[in-house]
Structure formats: C-alpha cells, structure tokens
Write a structure and sequence with these properties.
Distance between the termini: 29 Å
Number of domains: 1
Structural class: mainly beta
CATH class: Mainly Beta
Largest sheet: 19 strands, mixed
CATH topology: Jelly Rolls
Low-confidence stretches: 1-24
Mean pLDDT: 92
Order of helices and strands: HHEEEEEEEEEEEEEEEEEEE
Radius of gyration: 18 Å
Shape: globular
Number of helices: 2
Helix content: under 10%
Length: 268
C-alpha cells in the first residue's frame, strides 16, 4: 500500500505548486537568489531604443547605495542574462516623485516587469523583447499586458474575466469568469482596479498601494504555464495559460523615474 500513498502525496504536492498555494508563496527565503547584488548590474545588461545593448551614455540605469535608479529619460530595459521558468519573483520598487519625460509627462508613473521574454532585444517596438508584463503603474499595478504582435499568435495569455470593461475597452480579471485569450498588445486588469482609473498624472493609488516615495512589493509566481500576480501581499490577477512559459526578465524604463532594490527569485 505504500506506493499508492506516495503517488497521492506527490500528486497533491504538484497540484499545490500549480495552484500557487500558500506553501508556494511561503517558500523559504533562505533559498531565494538575489538577482541584484546591491552593488552593480552584474548578470544584467541594458538595452535602449536606438542605442542597443550596453550603450547608456545618459545613465538611464545606475546603481547607488544599494538601489537601481531608472531615470526613464530613454525607453528601454534592464535584462537578465539568464532565462527562467517555474519560480517565485519578488521585486521591491518605488516612484521617486520626479517629473516624467516627454510623452509620459501627463501620464501615471509607469514601468513593468517583463517576464518569459524571448527573441531578439527590441523585438517589440524596437524597445523590448516579446514577453508578458506584470505592469507597475500607479493605481493599476498588477495589470497584465501581452507584449506581443498580431503576427506572433504563439505569444499569448489566457485568464478569467467578467463582462465589465475598464473604460469600455479592457477586460478585468474575475475568478471563475469566462476564459479570455489575449494576443498582440492587450491587457487584463487587476480584479480590484478602480473602475474610474485613467492613465493620468496624479491618479490616486490603488487601495493597497503605498504613496509615491514609499516601497511597494510586486510578487510573481510562475508555475508551469500559469502565473499569479500578488501586489503588496494581495492576489490581484491570475493567468491560467501562457505561451511562452520560459524566458528572460526585463525591468522597464518607460519615461518615468523609478527605483528598484530587492529582486529575488526562488525556484519552485
């Protein structure tokens, strides 16, 4: 009788991982690997639109006192050298309160964590790799964006949504809702997004979001081809199927000053 019992235990553990259960989220911090060493950008490289790899004459990405500073002056990203799958990622970030640049001057402070990033640098808009995005934006952090193209149907996300649309356009995550299939450059809003949210400077923070200048925690749990988005400890979005399900991680520079400190990944 031992073998059936062991099999049941193994299946139970696997189901827990795929569901992003509390035990997965509570993975031992001692097993986490710090992707940012607090001193420099070792194991990362920069890509800036119109400049390419590791060409950053304006100092868009710098490290001071254990913090990555992103000015946002030029669009681009900080990208891991490695690819990852099946992991829990913790990213601590904050907005500096400095003015946004150019086309973002009147917009909400905006950045993002692009994950499962594949293909050439700049494959999307000559700026980012094709990927999925855990959006970091005041009032709507935890939204999902597909960073893809219509000619790449293999880059997609599926999730659950209700009938309500934000601004008559974007679907909103709802547990047990209908399955939606997103390709190209599309969005699935966090479940509790303010229904009057707009992408404007001065928009009010989300209910569990800290004020500008204070640190927030974005948590991403990727298991197999699923993903869960936690924001300051609250589950705000869930993706039931993604493609690809493996790739690099990018941190965006998107016209808005932002800082990152802890970036830690724990294998599942």
């Amino acid at each position: 009788m031992k073998r059936p019992i062991l099999c049941l235990l193994a299946l139970s553990c696997l189901a827990g991982v795929l569901c992003g259960c509390a035990s997965t989220r509570g993975a031992d911090r001692a097993h986490a690997r710090e992707l940012f060493n607090g001193r420099d950008l070792t194991n990362w490289y920069t890509f800036i639109r119109g400049r390419g790899v590791n060409s950053d004459p304006k100092g868009v990405f710098t490290v001071t006192n254990g913090v990555i500073h992103v000015t946002g002056e030029e669009f681009g990203c900080l990208t891991t050298q490695e690819e990852f799958s099946n992991y829990r990622l913790i990213v601590e970030y904050r907005w500096t309160g400095a003015p946004n640049w150019a086309s973002k001057k009147t917009k909400a402070p905006d950045s993002g964590i692009l994950f499962h990033s594949i293909g050439p640098d700049g494959g999307f808009g000559n700026t980012w790799m094709l990927s999925h995005e855990y959006n970091l934006i005041v009032g709507a952090s935890g939204d999902l964006w597909t960073v893809g193209r219509k000619d790449r149907p293999d880059i997609f996300v599926e999730g659950e949504a209700g009938d309500e649309l934000l601004g008559g356009k974007y679907r909103i995550h709802k547990e047990g809702g209908k399955t939606v299939h997103l390709v190209g450059n599309d969005r699935l809003c966090r479940s509790d997004i303010a229904r009057d949210w707009t992408d404007t400077y001065g928009v009010r923070p989300a209910a569990n979001e800290n004020p500008i200048g204070e640190w927030n925690t974005a948590e991403l749990v990727c298991a197999s081809d699923t993903a869960e988005f936690y924001f300051n400890g609250k589950l705000v979005n869930r993706l039931t199927r993604l493609s690809p399900a493996r790739g690099k991680i990018q941190l965006q520079s998107e016209g808005c000053p932002v800082e990152f400190r802890r970036i830690a990944i724990t294998p599942l």
